[in-house]
Amino acid sequence: GIEVHGLAANPKFPGNRSRTIHYRASPDSHTDPQGLLAALRSLATEIGDGAILFPTRDHDINFICNYREALKSIFTIPLAVNHVIGQVLDKELCADAAQECGIRVPRQVVVRSRKELEAASTLRFPCVCQPVRASDCRTRAVWALV
Questions:
Q1: Average pLDDT for consecutive 10-residue bins of the chain (146 residues)?
Q2: What separation, in Å, do the N-terminal and C-terminal C-alpha atoms of the chain show?
Q3: Distance between CA atoms of 10 and 24, rounded to whole angstroms?
Q4: Which residues have C-beta within 8 Å of that of residue 132, sequence separation ≥ 6?
Q5: Residues whose CB is less than 8 angstroms from the CB of residue 51 and which lie 6 or more positions away in sequence, other chains included
Q6: pLDDT at 35
Q7: Phi then psi for 133, rounded to 5 degrees?
Q8: What's the sign of the alpha-carbon dihedral 86, 88, 91, 96?
Q9: CA-to-CA distance for 46 and 62, rounded, in angstroms?
Q10: What is the predicted pLDDT for the residue at 146?
Q11: In this predicted structure, what is the pLDDT of residue 38?
Q12: What is the DSSP string of the chain?
C-alpha cells in the first residue's frame, strides 16, 4: 500500500519493470547531479515532502552526501552522517575502522604505484582485487584500462 517511485537514468535497468514501483526516467546522479536535484525537487512537490530517499549505488550515495542540505528538507535520508559514509565507501578506511573496533579483517594491500604493486605479489589466492572506492573506477578512462 506504499507508493514507490524508482528513478533511473538507464531506461533498460531491470528494476524499471517492477510491478511494485512507478518508474521515472531521471538524470544520472554521476553525470548530471544538478538535473537530478531538479527532478527530485519536482518529485517532492508532486508527492509531498518527507518521502524516504533510498540510494542504490555508490554514485547515488555520493550525490545525496553532496546535496544533503538541499535534500534533507524535502526527503527523509536514511544515511549516516557524511564522514561515516565516507569511511564506509572507502574500503581502506572501512578496514581501518573495523580493526580499531576489534573486528577481524583480511590482510589488504593498497596499490597506488608500481612499487606498491610488488607488495601485492605476496598475496595468495583466494584474494579479491577491487578499487578502494568503487565510484572512482566508473569513468570511461578507467573502464578502458580494465
A1: 90 85 92 96 93 92 96 96 91 90 87 82 80 71 69
A2: 44
A3: 10
A4: 90, 91, 92, 110
A5: 5, 43, 44, 75, 76
A6: 97
A7: -125, 115
A8: positive
A9: 25
A10: 63
A11: 97
A12: ----EEEES-TT-GGGG-TTSEEEE---TTT-HHHHHHHHHHHHHHH-TTEE----SHHHHHHHHHTHHHHTTTEE-----HHHHHHHHSHHHHHHHHHHTT---------SSHHHHHHHTT--SS-----SSGGGG-SHHHHHH-
Write out the three cell numbers for 129.
582485487
pLDDT at 53: 95
Q: Report whether 6 contacts 52 (CB < 8 A).
A: no
Cell of 108: 589488504
Peptide bond into 131 cis (omega under 30): no
Entry pTM: 0.78
Let me know: does 70 contact 56? Beta carbons within 8 Å: no
113 is written with which cell numbers? 604505484
